[in-house]
Amino acid sequence: MEMQWVLVLHALATLLVVVSLLCGHWPIFEGTFIERIHFFITVGAYDYLTRFVITAFGSRGRHLLFSVEHYCCERPNPILQIFYLSIVGVTYYFIAKSSFRYIPGYYVDGSHRYLSMVGVSVGGLLFLLTSFSDPGTVNAENVSQYALPTLTTTSFTPARSKHCKICNRCVARFDHHCGWMNNCIGEKNTRYFMAFLLWHFLLCLYGAVVLGLILACQMKQHKIVYILTTYYGIDSSFYSLAPHISQWLLASYNTQVLIIAFLTVVSLLLAGFFGYHAHLCLTNTTTNETFKWQDYVSWKTKLNEAKASAAALKASLAGGVKMNAYDRGVLGNLGEVVRPLSERAPFSRGRRGHSPR
After folding, report:
1. Mind giving me the DSSP string for 89-143?
2. Mind telling me which residue stretches traverse the membrane in this protein (predicted)?
3. ∠ CA(321), CA(324), CA(325), 5° rounding?
């Protein structure tokens, strides 16, 4: 029983670290301990590492550390792409090695051997499409394809475009730079990115469910419930049986149990990412615009707090600022993701609103 609690606490701690690392900067976690953990992982720990390297190795160590940081964080590199492929390959290998021998079974037929291969292959295809497709790169030759240009102090740029400092290019309807894809997410590949998130969420959920059914089949074949209730006199209620069944599963099928836990955690994270980006798509907003809006609201809040009460501030923000000039309703916003404006007829783009970046 003590080992079970250790595994549960380890899983919760891992989930907390992963959520804090990936989602701690979201506005919803502002001011919480998750944001503080995110800050420590992404900033504080690196600061301590920098001080240690400088103390131990001097300027040469600092130069090497900064070179690695520049390569990993400030220029395109395939590190996370390789990491993604490694995770998928290793996970599928352990699933095949540990569980395929139980297929077909009482609850799982033989087709799942091939369905799993198809699922992983489709996920790989979506990964390649998102990673290597053009996100909507804007240059002097094709600027008119994306929108009527808006004059800025330096160049003609379409509304909602942004220069990505990592890729060193201007991207139409820029959402964010995705390190996992080693590519920007913009007007032309948001649809592939959304399909990637949705498919991998379903794939992880599918894997967890099938492995769960395999374990249920093994429990039935070994008559675990019957043995526990008949020979050990354990009550047949769920709460009485659950600890003993869990102990048996961890002792006999620990690989499957760990993979199920991993797939469940990843599926929850992917569900959160997909839900967040689906909300952005349905409201015709980008991640870049969301963070800019949060910065504006924060600045506006501080300015108004110096002049008026909290009630006056709330009324000012609610009635004085238009949230999103690009919102065309759920169907219209979804249509822009599925079929980008830059791929439509010119007369359709002529009606598009434009504003300075």
Report:
1. HHHHHHHHHHHGGG-S-SS--THHHHHHHHHHHHHHHHHHHHHHS---EE-TTTH
2. 6-25, 78-95, 115-133, 197-217, 224-245, 257-276
3. 100
The tokens 């991993």 sit on which residue?
Answer: 262
pLDDT in tens, 105-134: 889 999 999 999 999 999 999 999 999 999
Residue position matching structure tokens 């970046």: 357
Contacts of 102 (CB under 8 A, 6+ apart): 108, 214, 217, 218
Pairing of strands 156-157, 150-151: antiparallel
pLDDT at 219: 93
Neighbours of 213 (CB within 10 A): 17
d(CA 39, CA 31): 11
> Which pLDDT tens digit goes with each residue over 141-165?
888 887 654 444 445 678 889 999 9
Bridge partner residues of 333 (DSSP): none
**Rounded Cα–Cα distance for residues 229 and 132 (Å):** 57
Nearest to 170 by CA among 195, 193, 194, 150: 150
Q: Are 189 and 301 in contact (CB under 8 A)?
A: no
Cα–Cα dist 170/158, whole Å: 10
What global pTM score does this model have? 0.78
Residues 6+ apart with CB under 8 A from 343: 188
Q: Which residues are catalytic?
A: 178
Beta strands in 153-312 (DSSP E): 156-157, 162-164, 169-171, 176-178, 183-185
Taking the CA atoms of 182, 183, 185 and 190 in sequence, report the sign of the dihedral they define.
negative
